[in-house]
Amino acid sequence: MDIELLKTFLEVCKTRHFGRAADNLFLTQSAVSARIRQLETLLSSELFSRQRNNIQLTAAGERLLLHADSVLAAWERARQDVALHNRHTVSLTLASTPGLWDTLLQTGISAIHQRLSDLVLRADIHSGDVLVRKLLERTLDIALLYDPPKAQELVSVPLTSLELMLVSSRPDQTPSQAQQHGYIMVDWGTAFQISHDQHFNSPTPPWLHTSHSRMALDLILSQGGCSYLPRRLVKPWLAEQKLFAVEGSPRFKRDVYGVYHASAAYQEQISEVMGILLQSARQSEQS
């Protein structure tokens, strides 16, 4: 099957419009329609119900959608492996949630490249549920997660712990005062949300919810406010007194795990990468 047919199917799923899908794919609308008809012929199923200005997936289309991303990811992985240059031995894919990318994975990838220069890396950001699914489908080699998955096929290795502290752009704030001035809620997972809600009952809701800790930090530094952020991330700005710890506010701890499939290929390289991530996390904590 032509892999471009699946790419076109996914673009129509995303846009729910043949014309916009054509624009995004740099094709004509007739070419997009022809690809979808070809895919429907191959699968002997109608994938979209087409009504005026209303394109919906059929039951068959919904079922195909469950597999299309995985098929494309597996194809991309195979293409990268086949195209490896002589000096490169292995290609690995790493991913994390947005908050862990900002805090750990970005520096970890730099350390991996310095230590294992013959390794080809792909780095992505996904939600926790997507990371677990990709690990189980073996389209992802290593994921950084807050909570170890319950799946028996997956191996979870403790890497570090994040100390989350409430910081504000204003000094001498109480927790209630800080949260009334530009509070940004960063998604640090379900366990954090439960603990947070047990300690706080502020009548002023956060003005922004985000999964990106770096976004929250940049916004607070540029226009003021407060948020729960990792101590290792905000340490330089605390030292420069551009941010201030909110005294009397609880601090929360989130354990971080490196997770991989027990039957994954390239076990030796995965073990090496996990060791480098562990060392990088410890150095980041001590710096």
Automatic annotation (TrEMBL):
Keywords: DNA-binding, Transcription, Transcription regulation. Pfam families: HTH_1, LysR_substrate. Coiled coil: none annotated. Residues 1-58 form the HTH lysR-type domain. The keyword Heme does not apply. InterPro entries: LTTR, LysR_HTH_N, LysR_subst-bd, WH-like_DNA-bd_sf, WH_DNA-bd_sf. GO terms for molecular function: DNA binding; DNA-binding transcription factor activity. Belongs to the LysR transcriptional regulatory family. This is LysR family transcriptional regulator. It comes from Proteobacteria bacterium 228. The lineage of its organism: Bacteria, Pseudomonadati, Pseudomonadota.
